[in-house]
């Protein structure tokens, strides 16, 4: 009896090992920026990739500033080395292994404001031209029909569906650690002049504001071959105000003028300071307002293997399905995850579990990097708020000396 059980166990291990060596199919759920980049990287390796997306059209007007660290191998966060030497070596090889056309495209998006729609359209074109397949339609909404995954045997299934992840809670119930950083009103618009801003400038642009400081992230951009600046400003608000403004559709500058006098007055002072009281340079027709809860979150468990019914599937969370961060850093971290995963996928040599462990460990370090960076931004914002209010006592309570 024991011999029979032993033979069955050995037979199962051998069959799983053989199946793992044969697994080179990838299903990517979600055709956003991270899913598309991963698809491009894998297609450059001639991997059999299928991408599914429930939405037939996406019109995303928001812009993001991708971090320059995406293509830097020696990643240091505030002087802290988070990655092991082996991880740094693999990170460098992953970056070096990218095709020049793709790495050049990503390089052109670093440290400047870029439309998410532009990023998606560019990556989609690259992915399709390399032979990638995208299946579109409501039937590919696996959140409604998870059972459809049974048709994908011997497959890596990469969940890039964002915050409302399809697989996260199926990997582990309540599979998310979520931390609220703050509630913000985000105001973006085009400024008809070149404007470069540092921390001292942000302080002076908020002079005369009474309660609501506008903290701008500034980047130059070219529109219609004219030099203009795309400005995104963050205004910290409380939860009650956030809940109230969530109900307003659409949220406009005129609404602030009529119903939110304190915010409107301080924003108006900021715009006066920004333009040296020549507010004709402010393109009010391009102004967009949105309220958001800025959260930092990550999945407790990122990978999961399914051997039921001879499926031999391996589920992986990536992008916002795995983690998200405030201050628009999520896509940058998702890109870093995709570049690293594509490299270790190419070099796994049939050892799937080792590859998944590597991915888990690497993304954990990315999460720590994201946390440190987010906390640093929040801390500096609090100092700036106190300085603008001429509250020396608050500044001394915020800073730590020795």
Automatic annotation (TrEMBL):
Q: Which domain of life is it from?
A: Eukaryota
Q: Provide the FAD-binding domain boundaries.
A: 25-63
Q: Which Gene3D superfamilies match?
A: FAD/NAD(P)-binding domain
Q: Name one GO molecular function term.
A: FAD binding
Tell me the Pfam families matching this sequence.
FAD_binding_3
* Originating organism: Rotaria sordida
Name under which the protein is recorded: FAD-binding domain-containing protein
InterPro entries hit by this protein: FAD-bd (IPR002938), FAD/NAD-bd_sf (IPR036188)
